[in-house]
Design brief:
- GO terms for molecular function: cysteine-type deubiquitinase activity.
- The structure is a single chain.
- This protein is an alpha+beta fold and 468 residues long.
- It has 15 helices and 23 strands.
- A hairpin with a 6-residue loop joins strand 18 and strand 19.
- Helix 8 packs antiparallel against helix 9.
- The longest helix is centred in the middle third of the chain and has 22 residues.
- 47% of the residues are buried.
Length: 468
Amino acid sequence: MKGTSGGGRSRPSTPGATPSRRLHRMTLRSDTRAAKKAGAAHQDNHDYESGDFHDSTISYGDFDIRDESAKMLAMIPPKGLSCLVGLYNEGNTCYLNSCIQCLVHTMPLAASILNGNATLSSNPAGTVLAGSKSFQRRSFSMECGSELAPRRLSEANLITREFRDLLTRMWSSLCPPYSVASASAFLRSLQSWDSQFAGYHQQDAQEAMRSILDGLHESLNRVKSRHYTDIYREYESRPEDELAGITWNYHKSLNDSIIQDIFCGQLQSSIECSVCKKKSHCFDPFLDLSLPLPDQQSGASSLLGSRMGSKWGVSISDCLSLFVAPEALSGHDRYKCSTCKVPQLSTKKLSIYRAPPILVLHLKRFHGSGSFSFRKNDTPVSYPLEGLDLTDYLAATPRRQYYPHGARYDLYAVCNHSGSLGYGHYTAQCKDADGLWYSFNDSSVSTLSEPSIVSSSAYILFYQLRCA
């Protein structure tokens, strides 16, 4: 969505950030969801009363972002375990198998479940990961303001329990290396949680990953009840760095789970009026980033220069540069300036304010070409195995204060898609606990010297923040 124009106050949006569907509805947009009720947003061990978002974290200066990430990333599965288990194709379920392999090789997530760190006494869904029989009855206590109905909470519990059981089996010594497991029970729980995955049609791996993380988050959310307020109505005039802390605190008052701890980052969207030069800022959480992929045939971006015609295609840095490139808002997309009081020509710019411990990059290879048809962009994309640096894409304050030596990431998993939209196949390449790379093609598991660093099939890249 571009900056809105016309009647009513508007503010910048952050397209390309791809939080889960439910989390997207819970971002801080006054134009997407009416505030339910002003007041406190209660969380176990934390009380967020109206006006306290500013007081509790004025900025990120109260703690070290890198130290916070390091604590999460330090978690590893128990020693001696590996996860070299294939998954049966239950009928066009390669999309799910590849997604599962990437998630179970996300070490902080695997460790949180295997080590029991996700079972918190303050967590109303903690009994799910503890294996309690109370799951069958209902492990959530409903309070006024809770987001999900009891039936949906039960479905969220189910997908979490089945994911725990599948992950535990895959990491267990009972499943020897190169054996095969079934994800059929987990598939049924996903179909119950999200009806778009009903049946055995080919699906999109990124959509599956979003839905899985959505269900896990809802089940493991430490927040028992949610109360919504329009943060921007009260705090929009605050300095941008202060506003970043306020909006992040508000988001965490509604969403606090291991999924948020591991995958969630924060995007900044800024719009500058070309007439009065006033800048407006908004901040939104994200679980992954959908990056534009230049079309080689159209020469979509001058940022890429002569690289567009090379056999190496483009780099992931090129895609990130396109993602944060300034965008002119004109015509019907003009932004209504709060100072000028009328829609004006303006420029929008995205940047990453808070880098997540686990960075998930989705390459937008599929796009509509008119008449409800889609086509795939097979442009080869190069990406580093180690040292992907986000410094150039960070907002000014975090770049200067929190990542003075760079925010570098190392690759640990790739979800690949080969073929066309309707007749494609998904596979995964993952780095196991032994530090070696393996290829996962449904039930087949094989060793890799190292994954390809240039690929026309790479679809989702999984990076872990380097904290040392």
